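Structure (tokenized):
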């Protein structure tokens, strides 16, 4: 069988079949259309080894003497005897490709297992890989793991992954690649605050805009593992798999299991090139929310949001909420989202989850008076829900205790053990068709009966000891939750859905396939958000990441920040507020209004452009921005506009920042540069700067070519720590 060669956007993937199994022999830079005879890659056979070369298989196998993590683990159970067919010898039986997609089938007829792999190299260079294992034997086959992984080149010597916790999601950690396996395990039953959105291997010191990088993401919202496996022969694989519970997937004869998709990107331009591949994939999706002009379709700009959570929490009073809506509309808000606290029995977080009926005592006339107050002022109305969860103190839990998830085969009403409570709540067993239908019907009814354009879909606990009928069921529950999203979307195609999970604990391409934005974090502290959003934005484009201006003093860190810093931080996302804006008056209100207008003016650029993050020598300074998109992506030729934030995170070592170079602009074009926010006269201007005299260009702006800005830069003002300025670049 001839080798396969997929090519797209500077990336090649070459697969050889000469060993009998499918082997990825290159995933990286584009190799052009002519490949040599791949026999030249035949490797030496070292001492104390099998008498053949060992392929780095698409599904690495112990039967070929692969000593690293195997692609498939499992065994057959025949006549009550487990452990049979423990070692598969998968051989290619079919392989087809059309330049950017391939389907490869490998089979072990003796063991009765076939695996079909689907590969797509998308137009922006993002690779999508999935395997499906099928049992064509006559007895059940227990599948313990089916992993998706790819080899990286030997010059990948460093690893970057992300970790975090509540209010501190997606922070980077780095290490050298050494022999052994680095595994990031998620046992939360949800994606998790600590989940690594991306696993990136790269050349020494790879950065935002330099170095070669190979990166993978597993599109799955349940238990999972992501790993980098460096085996004794020096080869490294990176990838991931669903982490299956004990006997969670037992394939009956004729049944199959499909892995979550592994998305993989290669870049020769550091991490920014990886982001470009992901952004291009997101933005090509038919249902992606894009500004109309950029989409060239029926897109719409991302509306300015006011979310009520940090404004009123559970204190839902119609008069207060109408006042808040009036104040929001006056500022220019376009979407008003009523957060937790509106449904039966929900006065705090101890009761009510599962009873998805508008609380009659709080809302005697239903939500209509509030919805009318919102929509009559030209805003959309959004509603918070948490469909997968239930409080024991709810009518639904009292009526259907057996709909509550637990590890036991015995129903809770007969004494079966439940998992520990978490925020006073439990999980609805969506694998149970009746429970699933009840939840579907309630959310469907709410959407039918009320003029709701948006759901903030929350998920506030881990799925611990998650069982159905006494057997591990995170896998089935995750699929059932996906089905709930899918069916509700189908029934209400005009309704947008946000994925929230105690902040940003469900951020992955599995959930983003069926939602329209994610809530990045419960932390609205702008300083923390700078890091959270920077690293979330590694994969997820800004139009899909909610970023809100929170109260002046953060509710989660007690830090106080000026409005300008909070606003500039929220700007590089899907912008909104989560603040009792009724109390924002005088100069601060003028500044806030000006900023909202500024977001509206620039949102199309922010939500369709190329993300640029500078590699600055000063670690207390960040420069990031968006450059207007160019057809060839990444190469900045033709960039007509850009918006950058210069952020001082802490005091600097040096007295002044000196010249800061600005990457990503068209070297041949001349640009006008202006510092547009906060501007002299804005309430926060004086507090942002500490200098006797600002740099010469600041007052009137400057003109320079993209080349000059990238090579020489501009002297920047002396910013106070935890302050930022917004810079606009316009091609002349
Ligand atoms: C957690 C979310 O992340 C918050 O934004 C808020 O919606 C609360 N849940 C409500 O309970």
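Design, position by position:
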């Amino acid at each position: 069988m001839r080798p396969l060669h997929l090519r797209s956007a500077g990336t090649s993937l070459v697969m050889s079949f000469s060993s009998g199994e499918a082997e990825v022999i290159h995933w990286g830079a584009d190799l052009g259309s002519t490949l040599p005879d791949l026999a030249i890659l035949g490797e030496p056979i070292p001492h104390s080894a099998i008498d053949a070369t060992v392929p780095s298989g698409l599904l690495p196998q112990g039967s070929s003497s692969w000593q690293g993590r195997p692609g498939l683990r499992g065994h057959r159970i025949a006549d009550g005897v487990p452990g049979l067919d423990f070692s598969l010898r998968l051989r290619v039986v079919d392989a087809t490709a059309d330049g950017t997609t391939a389907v490869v089938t490998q089979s072990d007829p003796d063991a009765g297992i076939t695996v079909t792999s689907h590969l797509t190299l998308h137009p922006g260079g993002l690779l999508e890989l999935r395997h499906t294992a099928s049992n064509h034997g006559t007895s059940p086959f227990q599948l313990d793991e089916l992993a998706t992984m790819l080899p990286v080149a030997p010059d990948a010597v460093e690893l970057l992954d992300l970790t975090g916790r509540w209010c501190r999601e997606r922070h980077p950690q780095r290490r050298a690649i050494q022999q052994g396996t680095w595994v990031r395990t998620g046992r939360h039953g949800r994606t998790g605050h600590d989940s690594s959105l991306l696993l990136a291997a790269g050349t020494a010191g790879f950065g935002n805009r330099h170095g070669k990088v190979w990166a993978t993401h597993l599109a799955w919202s349940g238990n999972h593992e992501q790993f980098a496996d460096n085996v004794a022969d020096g080869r490294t694989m990176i990838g991931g798999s669903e982490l299956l519970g004990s006997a969670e997937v037992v394939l009956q004869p004729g049944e199959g299991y499909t892995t979550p998709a592994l998305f993989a990107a290669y870049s020769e331009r550091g991490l920014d090139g990886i982001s470009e591949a992901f952004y291009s994939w997101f933005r090509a999706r038919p249902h992606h929310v894009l500004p109309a002009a950029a989409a060239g379709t029926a897109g719409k700009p991302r509306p300015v949001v006011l979310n009520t959570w940090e404004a009123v929490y559970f204190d839902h009073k119609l008069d207060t909420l109408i006042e808040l809506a009036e104040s929001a509309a006056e500022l220019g808000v376009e979407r008003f989202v009523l957060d937790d606290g509106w449904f039966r029995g929900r006065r705090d977080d101890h009761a009510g989850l599962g009873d998805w009926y508008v609380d009659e005592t709080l809302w005697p006339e239903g939500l209509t008076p509030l919805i009318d107050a919102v929509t009559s002022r030209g805003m959309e109305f959004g509603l918070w829900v948490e469909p997968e969860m239930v409080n024991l103190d709810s009518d639904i839990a009292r009526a259907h205790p057996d709909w509550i998830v637990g590890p036991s085969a015995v129903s809770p009403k007969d004494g079966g053990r439940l998992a520990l409570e978490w925020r006073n709540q439990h999980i609805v067993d969506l694998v149970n068709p009746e429970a699933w239908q009840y939840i579907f019907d309630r959310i469907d009814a709410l959407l039918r009966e009320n003029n709701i354009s948006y759901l903030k879909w929350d998920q506030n606990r881990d799925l611990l000891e998650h069982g159905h009928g006494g057997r591990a069921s995170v896998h089935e529950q995750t699929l059932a939750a996906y089905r709930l999203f899918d069916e509700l979307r189908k029934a209400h195609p005009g309704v947008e859905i946000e994925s929230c999970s105690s902040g940003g604990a469900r951020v992955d391409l599995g959930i983003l396939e069926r939602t329209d934005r994610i809530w990045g974090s419960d932390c609205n502290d702008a300083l923390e958000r700078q890091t959270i959003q920077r690293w979330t934005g590694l994969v997820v484009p800004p139009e899909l990441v909610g970023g809100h201006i929170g109260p002046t003093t953060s509710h989660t860190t007690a830090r106080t920040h000026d409005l300008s810093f909070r606003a500039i931080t929220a700007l590089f996302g899907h912008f909104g507020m989560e603040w009792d804006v009724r109390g924002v008056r005088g100069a601060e209100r003028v500044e806030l209004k000006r900023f909202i207008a500024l977001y509206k003016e620039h949102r199309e650029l922010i939500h369709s452009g190329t993300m640029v993050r500078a590699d600055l020598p000063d670690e207390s300074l960040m420069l990031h921005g968006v450059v207007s998109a160019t057809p060839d992506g990444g190469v900045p030729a033709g960039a007509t506009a850009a918006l950058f934030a210069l952020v001082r995170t802490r005091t600097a070592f040096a007295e002044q920042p000196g010249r800061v170079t600005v990457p990503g602009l068209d070297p041949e074009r001349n640009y006008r540069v202006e510092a547009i926010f906060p501007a002299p006269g804005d309430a926060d201007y004086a507090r942002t700067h500490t200098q006797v005299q600002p740099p010469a260009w600041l007052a009137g702006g400057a003109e320079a070519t993209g080349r000059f800005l990238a090579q020489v830069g501009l002297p920047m003002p002396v910013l106070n720590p935890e302050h930022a300025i917004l810079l606009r670049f316009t091609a002349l």
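Reviewer-requested clarification: The chain has three domains: 4-284, 305-606, 610-731. The radius of gyration is 27 Å.
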